[in-house]
Design a protein that fits this description.
Elements lengths: L2 E5 L3 H13 L3 E5 L2 H9 L5 E5 L7 H11 L4 E5 L4 H9 L4 E4 L4 H16 L1 H5 E4 L2 E4 L4 E4 L2 E2 L4 H11 L8 H7 L9 H14 L10 E4 L3 E4 L5
Parallel strand pairs: 1-2, 1-3, 3-4, 4-5
Antiparallel strand pairs: 6-7, 7-8, 8-9, 10-11
Bound molecules: calcium ion.
The site of calcium ion has 5 residues, from loops.
């Protein structure tokens, strides 16, 4: 359960999210105005802030900077614009994560969980070791038996997502939502192709898997091949 502050001026979204998140056991406070939200956020009683970027009184990015000036509370920005400049602007303003509208309650909740996990144990997730594989989330580095792996951004994100959940079977749908930000599904092929590239860099194949174990129709998991 998390204490969530929702700053959203669209009454329909605000009410439905408040209801749905409360149904899942979260403690939700909601406001339509940026300045009310900033005030509540800096009072320090919330675990996470979900901030709409398009607000009537103050621009969402400015509101975010006001929060950041005085608080480290994790902030997820909700934006209607799915473009790289916008995303960069959001992170520059101090956001911890973002969701693209329209987003599902499931997707938002998953992002909140991930953020709170990071906030709770920054050291623990700084470097993850799975057998000879080391993944340093903060430094964005991965190495195998001491040799640095040359991974693309998506390959790294995919590996990191699996490594944060060692031994757990993850569905391709979840990977598409988390790594490719496609909460409503997409081509499984995208995941398959990246998995095969990642496997190649880890020195394994689908026929002779080591770290990456897949089960047809279920998903994929990262394991220590030596254990
Ligand atoms: Ca809005």
């Amino acid at each position: 359960m998390a204490s969530i502050l929702l700053i959203e001026d669209d009454q329909r979204i605000r009410q439905s999210l408040t209801t749905r998140l409360a149904e899942r056991g979260h403690d939700v406070e909601a406001t339509a105005r940026a300045m009310d939200g900033v005030q509540r956020a800096v009072e320090g009683r919330v675990d996470v802030v979900v901030l709409d970027l398009g607000l009537p009184d103050v621009d969402g990015a400015d509101a975010l900077q006001m929060i950041r000036a005085v608080s480290d509370v994790p902030v997820i920005v909700a934006t209607a614009r799915d473009d790289q400049n916008e995303i960069v602007r959001i992170f520059d303003a101090g956001a911890d994560d973002y969701v693209i509208k329209p987003y599902s309650t499931d997707h938002l909740e998953a992002r909140i969980r991930a953020l709170l996990r990071r906030a709770a144990s920054p050291e623990e997730i700084a470097a993850i070791v799975v057998g000879e594989l080391t993944i340093d989330i903060e430094a964005h580095d991965a190495s195998l038996a001491g040799t640095q792996l040359e991974l693309s951004a998506k390959e790294f994100e995919l590996l990191a997502y699996l490594a944060e959940r060692p031994g757990k079977m993850i569905s391709k749908r979840e990977l598409l939502a988390a790594v490719w930000r496609q909460p409503y599904g997409g081509a499984d092929k995208t995941v398959d192709v990246h998995l095969s590239w990642l496997r190649k860099k880890l020195g394994e194949t689908a026929a002779e898997p080591r770290f990456i174990q897949t089960r047809r129709g279920i998903g994929v998991k990262l394991v220590d091949p030596e254990s």
